[in-house]
Amino acid sequence: MSTTMKRNHDFEAESTGTDVPGVPDLTPEGLAAEWAADSPPPSGSTANLAASLVAAGLGVAGMVIAVGLGLGTPGEPRPGTWPFIISLIIAVLALAQLVVGRRGGVDGERFSPLSRMAAFGFVTLLAMVWLMPVIGFEIPALLLCFVWMKFLGGETWRSATLYSVLVVAAFYAIFILGLGTSIPHLF
Question: Is the pTM here over 0.90, yes or no?
Answer without folding.
Answer: no
